[in-house]
Amino acid sequence: MGAIPLTREDDRSIQQESLDELHVRAAQLNPHAFAPLYEAYFKPVYGYCARLLRDPQAAADATSETFVRALKALPKYQARSFRSWLFTIAHHVVIDMTRRRKPTTALDDAGELTDRDPSPEEWYLTRESDRRVVQLLGHLPGNQRQIVELRIAGLRSQEIADVLGISVGAVRTAQYRAHARLRELLSTPSSDQEFSHDDL
Question: Which of 59, 87, 133, 145 is the most exposed place for a label (fewest CB within 10 A)?
Fold first, then answer.
């Protein structure tokens, strides 16, 4: 059986991973060489944090904390993908910040307590995605929403599995269900206010 041909996206990801590894090795020798990694991933990490925290200042703080932790941990870096490693850190930073902000509220429920409309900063960062899709993410169960958020940030199935500590099969199953739910919500002409978490 022949090898599965690579898509353009796969090819770009492989090239980016190779470049990331070169930058990681350089930064392990000289922290100032971390700058290209910061520049490459600041926007996707900020976008991910902003969509989950729904607060531009909190997202900026979470992004900063993510890169601080990454730089401190870089000497011991041994991951297979820098991007998945970095987003694992961002994921934990967001969880920590959410717990500090709402000690009695789980991360999965946090989106239900805030305004569903994206801020101008979030809209700028997610303009490549349908605005209504971004608004409707809060209607997905927690694990599905996390997977879609990471997919919007550009991660592939294996990287998402690494971040969340689940199998690739579980990622694909949850993503399929999330897309089906989003299609259902998008096909409903009623306003966002008429949806409820009980509809899930």
Answer: 133
